[in-house]
Specification:
Helix content: 55-70%
Number of strands: 0
Distance between the termini: 37 Å
Number of helices: 8
Shape: globular
Length: about 160
């Protein structure tokens, strides 16, 4: 059973603060919210995720830039433009979405699902299940830009 304790605060500002707090939460447009799809994530944010991942793999900056150009082509941004702290990245993008970006990038480079799985585990200390990475890799190779669920038939007749 769930018990909720109500605390009365004699301040007149408290109701205003509550309203402001809940309004901010309901209108926040953070890139990592549940509604965000991979195809909606800005290319610069995707590149920042990849840069952080490759940096943790101890890849040299020149090599990172070359690999970004190979995958992103004309949309590649300068490393200085997309650089940002890992903390800031975690504010803007859900960790699961970050994993999707890395899986999409490594698949585009030609890495197989098993290799992607091992690299994610080596860098982050954990990984999605191999079966999920295999499914997403297949979908990315088929040209999908996002790996969310496909629309389902909702006829209930």
């Amino acid at each position: 059973m769930l018990y909720v304790r109500v605390v009365y605060l004699p301040s007149r500002l408290f109701p205003l603060l509550l309203i402001f707090f809940f309004f901010e939460i309901s209108t926040a447009s953070v890139a990592g919210t549940k509604k965000t799809k991979l195809k909606d994530v800005d290319v610069g944010v995707k590149q920042r995720v990849v840069i952080h991942f490759l940096t943790k793999e101890k890849v040299l900056p020149d090599e990172i830039e070359r690999r970004l150009k190979d995958v992103f082509g004309n949309e590649t941004r300068d490393l200085k433009d997309v650089a940002g702290s890992e903390e800031r990245l975690s504010w803007t993008l859900d960790p699961r979405l970050q994993e999707r970006v890395v899986i999409q990038f490594l698949t585009a480079e030609g890495a197989g699902p098993k290799e992607v799985f091992e690299r994610l585990r080596a860098v982050f200390g954990k990984s999605l299940p191999l079966s999920t990475i295999q499914r997403w890799s297949r979908q990315f190779k088929a040209g999908r830009t996002s790996v969310g669920d496909l629309p389902r038939n909702t006829n209930r007749s």
